[in-house]
Amino acid sequence: MSTKGKKVVIAMSGGVDSSVAAAMLVEQGYEVVGMMLRLWSDPGSEVYNRCCTPASMSMARRIAAQLEIPFYAVDAKNVFKDQVVDYFIEGYSQGVTPNPCLMCNRHIRWEFLLNKALSLDAEYMATGHYARVIHEEGQPVQLLKGIDESKDQSYVLSVLNQSQLSRALFPLGEFTKTEIREMAESYKLPVAKTKDSQDLCFLGGSNYASFLEKYAPNTSTPGQIIQKDGNQLGEHNGLAFYTIGQRKGLGLSSPVPLYVIEKDIQNNQIIVGPMEELGRSELSAGAVNWVTGDVPDSPFAGEIKIRYQASNSTGVVTPIDSDKFNIAFDQPLRDITPGQAAVVYQGEEVIANGIIEGENELARDIIPVELVSK
Question: Can you list the domains of the chain with their CATH numbers?
Answer without folding.
Answer: 7-203 (3.40.50.620), 221-277 (2.30.30.280), 280-356 (2.40.30.10)
